[in-house]
Amino acid sequence: MGKVHIIMAAYNGAAYLTEQIMSIRQSTFTEWELWIFDDGSLDETEDIISRQEAEANGRIHYIKNVKNKGVTLNFLEGVKTVSSQTVNNSPENESDNYYMFCDQDDVWMPDKIEKTLKAMKRYEKKYSQKLPLVIFTDAMITDEKLNVINPSFHKSNHLNTGKLDLPHIMMENKLIGCTVMFNAALEKKLTVLPKQVRYHDWWIGLLGAAFGHMVYLPFPTLYYRQHGGNVVGNQDFYAYVRKRIAALKEQKKVLYANASQAKEFYEIYRDSLSEDKKMQVYAMSNLMEKNWFCKRYQCLRFGFLKSGLVRNIALLLIL
Fold it and tell me: What is the mean pLDDT of each run of 10 residues along the chain (319 residues)?
């Protein structure tokens, strides 16, 4: 059915790492390998992984980075490292390799890999295994002790998962990285590691939307643990609104960051984008350079919008 390669970015994760790795080891789908890229941990992370490695029959691989890369680059470079090793080992089965991201502090549901991979195979049959495909799911938000705070990340954040076209994805990331699976065709599109990327999962989403397909599965596959050490965590919709009202200048910086990300995407992929996608990416990359009227016109013309009326009113006010 395929081999699933799980890329985990670790950094001082001793508090929850054992629980996360054990949840993967207890998966109903067994053809997986876990690749852990340690970004310079100073706690017991390496010792915990060594113990797990010894028990997992060669399915856990530990790589310690020479220098700290940061979470986004650690994940994306991890994908390329894993890909180079798996292709060299079995080039004839390259298209049967699938990739998942994994945080160090969550807990996966036992059927997470199995359910996601079944959907992947179903949609590859629909769209073709040769096209990039990314699948992502919902997640249960929990506290640090795994008590459920909210049963749906996407409903909690009022995110419209029905809008997965490229213009919407360039303006708003809807993916939770730790729920993502993507195929070998998408991995091949990761030709250049970006410098202006905002998040690793966002870049994967852009590749799926630009060159293939994105699919959302409306059910949770993991317990998304919230605690004081989260690099990127959950915030409910009302906290989102309050934060943006209080920091309008900061939100304008976010829009500039979105445009910079689109600009780098255009520079890397303009020769392989279809004409309509090229026009969309180019328009987004230059959005913040336009005058007051043109910025708003471009958003409405191309669909550079967010989820829901409140977010879009705020967007058009901030631009």
Answer: 94 97 98 97 97 96 96 97 81 84 98 98 97 98 97 96 98 98 98 95 98 98 86 60 68 95 98 98 98 97 96 93
Instruction: Flag whether 37 is in a domain.
Output: yes
3-state secondary structure of 183: strand
Q: Environment class of residue 165 by beta-carbon count within 10 Å: exposed (0-12), middle (13-18) or buried (19+)? A: middle
Contact 170, 284 (CB under 8 A): yes
pLDDT attached to residue 318: 92
Residue 249 lies in a domain: yes
Domains of the chain: total: 2
Instruction: Say yes or no: 183 and 309 in one domain.
Output: no
Q: How many CA atoms lie within 13 A of 246 on its CB side?
A: 6
Do residues 291 and 160 both lie within one domain?
no
Q: For the chain, give me the number of helices (H) and strands (E)?
A: 13, 9
Q: Is residue 63 part of a domain?
A: yes
Whether residue 184 is found in the same domain as residue 263: no
Confirm whether 232 is domain-assigned. Answer: no
Angstrom distance (rounded) from CA 48 to CA 25:
14
Which of 191, 24, 177, 181 has the alpha carbon at shortest distance from 111?
24
